[in-house]
Specification:
Order of helices and strands: EHEEEHE
Oligomer: single chain
Helix content: 10-25%
CATH topology: Glutaredoxin
Strand order of the largest sheet: 2-1-3-4-5
């Protein structure tokens, strides 16, 4: 299984610098693995905070308007994303509120 890379914008003010640390702790607590990093800007300033998920050979996702309240759904998304062979979902309902926070879905 290709590793999942999660990138959190650290310049977005909506969630502050705690978002990446809290998400990392939640992923670890859920006994999941992912590479989590931060970047200075992902140009999602109109919808802060932004978080991206990507893995080799899979569709990548960029979410905006993310707050610490979304962490449980981000962890659920990680679980679903890891299980999806190509990163696509036939039904978006399991994504919960994240389906309305998607900014982009980028083909592999």
């Amino acid at each position: 299984m290709n590793p999942v890379r999660i990138t959190v914008c650290q310049s977005c003010v909506a969630a502050g610098s705690a978002l990446a640390d809290l998400l990392k702790a939640a992923i670890f607590g859920a006994d999941l693995t992912a590479e989590l990093g931060v970047t200075d800007c992902m140009s999602g300033c109109a919808r802060p905070s932004t978080v991206a998920f990507r893995a080799e050979g899979k569709t990548a996702y960029l979410f905006g308007d993310i707050t610490v309240d979304d962490i449980p759904e981000l962890v659920s998304f990680l679980r679903l994303y890891r299980a999806a062979p190509d990163g696509n979902f036939s039904d978006a309902r399991p994504l919960g509120g994240l389906r309305k926070k998607a900014i982009a879905r980028i083909p592999a």
